[in-house]
Write a structure and sequence with these properties.
294 residues, mainly alpha, elongated, 2% strand
Length: 294
Amino acid sequence: SNHFGSSHCGSSVGPSVQLLGGIDAMFEPGQAGGQPEEPPGGTALVPAEETALASAEETALAVPETELDIKMKELSAGLGGDTWREKRNALLEIKRMGPEAVELAPDVTDLLLDDEDFDVREAARKALIAMGPDAAEDVAEQIHEALQCKDLSNRKVGDEAGVMLRSFPPESAARITPVLLRILPEQNWKGAEAVGQAILDLGKDEYVEVAKASPVLLDMLRSPETKLRANAAHAFGRFVKWAPEEADKVLVEMMSDDPDYWVREAAMKAHQRINGEFDYDVRNNITQAAPGQI
């Protein structure tokens, strides 16, 4: 280390000697072994005094903990508790506090995705919603990463992430969507679906976000990966009347030409939603159609 007087510098010479410019500077000329000169400005501090002074300065500069700081520490400890009751109680308090507890959003998301107890996961979902758009933006990549979990061993993690995305209200979805759009070029089929789900919640700003997502989703419609084509189609279907005309043309081609049955079905449903051929509850992904219509 280059810190002056630090115990890491490896020198056997004490700080006071370095302060005085070396051994020779400690004596008058021709008076080897005489009394050391007093340094300019007064007597040098010995190491113990330096440490005490530094400690006093740090204490003077320290910002006292606020009630909120203490509360966040308590809640953080609760989230890491050993029992479901400790975690749930902490989550209920976070939900009550709302945006004030936003710094705990990543920890809450960990519980949402990983905890074994359903009540804890449900409480975590409600707490994230209550913390508002800032919290949603903070954890968007965390949730997107969880969407990748599709093996049998961790599929429930991906499912929880999908439910969370569908649960965010419009003001939070609007903040999440730009994050998802940045991730989208990775061409993950669950990411494509998530973007469509988020955009459908955006209220008056749908078209702006659709315009950003459409070029990448159009590429996905032509992907060799079956799930990617199907979910890009689903994403466009969620855009309904805001879907671009070019996308609808590709979907019509896919309805008859795609080699995969499920992709053809996805394309047909998306085309029909875009053109208002049957009612579709996009919030809950439920088709309201008579048998034989789809």
